[in-house]
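Example pasted here:
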Amino acid sequence: MTDVVVAIFIATYVGMAAGQVPGLKLDRSGIALIGAIALIATDAVTPAQASGFVDRSTMMLLFGLMIVAAQFGVAGVFEGAARRIAALADRPRRLLGAVIVVAGTLSAGLANDIVVFAMTPLLCTGLRSRGVNPVPYLMALAAAANAGSAATLIGNPQNILIGQMTGLGFWRYAAIAVPVAVATLAIAYGVIAWIWRAQLAAPLPAVQASGERTPLYSDRRQYAKALIATAALLILFATPVPREIPTLAVAGVLLASRRIESRALIGDVDWNLLILFAGLFVVTGAFLVEMQGEAGAGGIAARLADAGWLPDRLSRLVPLALAVSNTIGNVPAVILILQAWPSPPDGAMVALAILSTLAGNLLLVGSLANIIVAERARANGIKLSFAEHARAGVPITLLSTAVAAAWLTALGIIRL
């Protein structure tokens, strides 16, 4: 049975790297789900074992946070933010800065995938209506969403996973990560402004003022509920209560609305991402159970430590983060690392959360946020190509990773 498990594991992670299966309309979520189904169908694992591999606390936290993000969506916050940005009639560099600040700020408190999913088509429409090439601003949206999400343990899926499975303190992590995220936003602005300097030097087409300022929200009451829910979570995250408990409680309160149907909020949940998590938990869990048996009492982590391959220092973690985030993806990579390394030091996990997120800016396939921006833009007739993304993404990633490594070393978080 070991051969079956190993074969399914390899096939699943090859699929994660490819992103699709030739001739089929399968994406990463479908590949992960089929991998889990294959394990159960071949009796490699039982349904009960498969259920046990899934980290329920992470799934509950992720679901609850998606409901909170959906509350901002029904309040019109994403639409209002995108329209405010696109309506700027000042210099293009100010418009670029607005995209980066708004996307980075929203992504720190909400899942970055949700932010870019909502804002990309709105930004495309607003900028094209003014005759502006949206590509540099879409690049800024993706880069800023990744950078901003590195600031907190709820900013992106891999950070949520790391926070839940390791017990990192929410505010302690933020104190370390926020300066890196801010520096990366500044780097993204500088790199994009330099690469597209000719376009950004030209004045934007004039916009006729309407006399009214575009509101940040379309429904004041729902916006207030979203702000109160977020504030409550941030306060509760500082307590010893497991983060998924208050998150689900707040989500339940938001669902019990007299004005917004529950299906409106539930419909905005990224079920594909939840399926991706569940499928990878099962595939990776089954593989590691088999490998732990092969490795003996010391386990996989002990074998890696003996071989000098354990990513407990920057000299190993930086190249690992860059490689795996831009091949199999940062979410599958983090799931694999955490399940193979049962008792990692906090410093290594702080570094993993920051570096795996920043590494997502390197290539277009480096993060789900990048892919969402490219696909949503393409649906609106705009192409953000692999080459255009890499043109800005490579220098942004290399510079921000160097800054992060220097910062983490200076604080004594992790060894070189």
